[in-house]
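Pipeline run #58 for the internal structure catalog. This entry was flagged by the ingest filter as a single-chain record with no existing model, so it goes straight to prediction. Upstream metadata was stripped on purpose; only the residue string is passed forward. Reviewer on rotation: M.T. Logging verbosity set to normal.
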Amino acid sequence: MTLAVSWVRKVGSSCEELVVAADSRLGGGMKLDCCPKILLLPRSDSFICFAGDTAYAYPLMLQLSMAIQAYGPSLDRAMDIHDMRGHALKVFNKMRDSVHDYVEGMDEPDTSFILGGYSWVRKAFSLWLIHYKATERMFTYRPARNLLPGFPSIVLLGDCVREARRRLVALLNERHHLGGDCRVGGTFDMEPFEVLRDILREGRYDTVGGPPQIAKVYQHMNCRPVAVYWPDRSSGSVYLHGRPLLQYEHSNYWILDPETLKTTHPAFSQFSNSVG
């Protein structure tokens, strides 16, 4: 399946960005470790990421992207992301109702999504888990939840979520010196990505693997992918959307060093930062 995570990251003293990261493995009789799981939506202020059965996930995601492209108020963002979420659910449920001639059990989608972006109405990032509710035979949603009291909300999705949550809580306790008192609170930096990175490097979970893939939504209402050096910067191998770039391909996106968590840009690689 997948391990995916999305959270609001604090940048400096006054800025935030919405980050989503996932592994790149698809299974089903084979392992393919270069599959895009994060789709940037054409309205440019949002993304959708999946975990689960690709027989449902890819058609639903692609049709949502094309539905946004075809509907002016959504494409130009006059429709706020909260209304677009409702539009997405209508598209998903209409498609689910169109399933027919199925093998028993295949009409119940084993697929979930993270949908996130920036709301110009609320002047804040919005983040949801979209999942199929069998008792109501429809896709529905719930908002992101707090991992710890006093911390921003977060969505963890897919396999080994319990282990990822346990590791993230331990890391936050260590970084923020909570001493078990979670009421102190704090903010996320790149800790959720660090947990994903370490799980991928260890390779303990058969359904979670490949390089990490990342995208960010910025407060200027633009969503961009971030390339990654993998397994580390010394390898010189750059991955974008989970795929290794060919030797002649030069990314126009910032590239993340998974160890230092700093980004560089090919156009001025002598500079680095932790914001990218």
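catalog note: The longest helix spans residues 54-70.
catalog note: The mean pLDDT is 93.
status: ready for reviewer M.T.
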